[in-house]
Design a protein that fits this description.
Elements: H1 9-12, H2 23-37, E1 39-49, E2 52-63, H3 66-71, H4 85-111
């Protein structure tokens, strides 16, 4: 059983295609192109009162693949302890060395003599 079209043929031809019908491939192509090439969105927000600048916010948004970002020299996530387990381990190693050094200095002050450094 077929359902009749609610609109006359000349009117229904003017309506856009519903979402999801054929637009998936186009969206995937656009996303692939953006991630491959990268896109930068930049903007500044300034709040002035009587010609006195009270606040300036600079917004920069970069959308790119990880490979493209590294190619551009952007790799801050590799050294951020909140995002990288290797960076977290490096941070813990550094903190541990600092604490050992502080403990050695406190022991030196307490005993009055200098300890030999461990290799």
């Amino acid at each position: 059983m077929t359902t009749p079209n609610r609109f006359p043929p000349e009117r229904s031809a003017r309506f856009p295609e519903p979402y999801g019908s054929g637009s998936g491939a186009n969206l995937a192509d656009i996303l692939e192109r953006v991630l491959d090439k990268g896109i930068v969105i930049a903007g500044d927000i300034r709040i002035n009162l009587l010609d006195i600048e009270l606040l300036t916010i600079k917004l920069r948004l970069i959308v790119a693949s990880v490979d493209k970002a590294k190619e551009m020299g952007i790799d801050w996530w590799e050294t951020d302890p909140a995002l990288s387990s290797r960076a977290r381990k490096d941070e813990l190693t550094r903190e541990n060395a600092e604490l050992r050094e502080r403990l050695a200095r406190l022991e030196e002050l307490e005993t009055g003599h200098v300890r030999e450094e461990a290799p």
